[in-house]
Specification:
Layout lengths: L2 H19 L6 E7 L3 H14 L3 E7 L2 H12 L8 E3 L3 H9 L3 E2 L21 E13 L22 E3 L6 H14 L2 H9 L2 E2 L3 H9 L5 E5 H9 L4 E4 L6 E10 L5 H12 L1 H9 L28 H6 L1 H13 L1
Helix pairs in contact: 9-10
Length: 328
């Protein structure tokens, strides 16, 4: 055996040893279905790929309700195409879990997330906290005379707008919460008084900024972003409590890249990921990350009790009743 052949064998052996002791991190493409607003989804995807460059994140963004229709259709035709779901409609994750469509994963970063925002079985974890609040255009309705309570909101009649649960998962959660808190009477009164139903939370906030309405129901981070851009809006935290939605993250059972999906979830729940959300105006789910300037910490927010399980079990009936009262 000549010296060249011996060295070739040694190098091959070392190469083989190296491949078993320092495996390359998982890479590939991860497909994300999310209801994050487009600009926020795009910026957050860039932050993730800058931190985890070996993984390419492909984002399909739409409203929660439209994505849910797509998800249930895909379940009937070979499986959900997404690796990760990140929607505002928290109850639908309970339905997907019960149907066996989610993959359990307990991220090491999830230890920093309150237990109430994690599925006990490990199928989903909150990735952001969004809150339904009252917003007012202060050039039309000064903050001192704007509604301070959800119970007063219908009284503002045609000057008030709310989003539609057929387009927004967070609004569906609000409707379910209000039914439990106030009964359908709240909606019947809102209809009698002339409260308008627009498409989604962003449409309500834009209509407020354009002075088409004086007060509206919308999400905190959307109103916050418009205020930061100079819109004359005020955020009012209702005295009874906001409707807080811990927007869940989950890996699908049919994920083609589960290891890459775990890397994405680890990033979302990490301090770096939560700080990236804060820069986009979103309240973090980790207590060790400061919220956006001027917004409260999650623990400081008074919230109404949200009936997640009941909402998941009665979703079709809740939407049908809302349509009968508010849309016909």
């Amino acid at each position: 055996m000549n010296i060249v052949r011996v060295w070739a064998m040694v190098l091959a052996l070392l190469g083989g040893l190296g491949s078993t002791t320092s495996a390359a991190p998982p890479g590939g493409t991860v497909v994300l279905y999310t209801s994050l607003p487009q600009e926020i989804a795009t910026n957050f995807a860039r932050a993730f790929m800058a931190k985890v460059p070996q993984v390419k994140l492909e984002v399909l963004r739409s409203g929660s309700t439209e994505l849910e229709r797509r998800i249930f259709a895909e379940m009937e035709t070979g499986g959900i195409r997404a690796d990760v779901l990140w929607l505002a409609d928290a109850p639908v994750f309970i339905t997907l879990r019960e149907k066996g469509q989610l993959l359990p994963y307990r991220s090491p970063e999830a230890r920093m997330i309150p237990a109430a925002w994690k599925d006990p079985q490990g199928f989903f974890t909150a990735g952001r906290l969004i809150n339904m609040i009252i917003a007012a255009n202060t050039t039309l309705i000064p903050e001192r005379v704007a509604p301070k309570r959800w119970a007063d909101f219908p009284r503002y009649g045609k000057t008030a707008a709310m989003p539609n649960p057929f387009f927004s998962g967070s609004v569906f959660v609000v409707v379910a919460t209000f039914v439990k808190e106030y009964g359908w009477d709240w909606f019947e009164r809102a209809r009698r008084e002339g409260v308008q139903v627009l498409r989604g939370n962003s449409e309500v906030a834009r209509a407020l900024a354009a002075r088409e309405f004086g007060v509206g129901m919308t999400l905190d981070f959307i109103a916050y972003g418009m205020i930061r851009d100079g819109a004359p809006l005020a955020i009012i935290w209702p005295e009874e409590g906001a409707v807080s939605v811990p927007s869940p993250l989950a890996i699908t059972r049919s994920a083609k890249n589960p290891e890459g999906a775990k890397q994405f979830i680890d990033f979302v729940l990490s301090r770096d990921g939560q700080r990236a959300l804060v820069e986009l105006g979103i309240i973090p789910v980790r207590a060790d990350v400061e919220p956006p300037r001027g917004l409260p910490r999650a623990a400081e927010i008074k919230t109404l009790p949200v009936p997640f399980e009941w909402a998941a079990a009665n979703a079709a009936e809740i939407r049908k009743k809302f349509e009968e009262i508010m849309l016909k």
